[in-house]
Predict the 3D structure of the following.
Amino acid sequence: MTANRLITALTALGAAFFLVFGLWPFFDAQSFFDQVATFEPFNAHFLHDIGAFQVGIGVTLAAALWRRSDAIFAALAGAGVGSALHAIAHIRDRADDLGGRDTDAFVFGLIAILFLAGAAWRLRSKA
């Protein structure tokens, strides 16, 4: 196996790992806590945030595989998706009284929009 193939496989494996172990706590914090993160105390808000950021890392790795010559796009896409999920977690967790401030969803949502717009602009300009 060539070094390039090995790096590609490692990147793909990393993307899958971070996506699975990000989506799981994001969507089912209790199950993730019960099966993987068994340290006390259980904190659904914290696990939702961790899941959002793990997904962002996974998207960054996947975007790097897709657009190999454009690290800026990969970084913006991953940060944008992670920030969007972070904003969604704060909206959901605030509604369930799990934590966060009233302004969090707006701030994190704005950051997500800026990063995702930057990624879309970068993708369009490099097409």
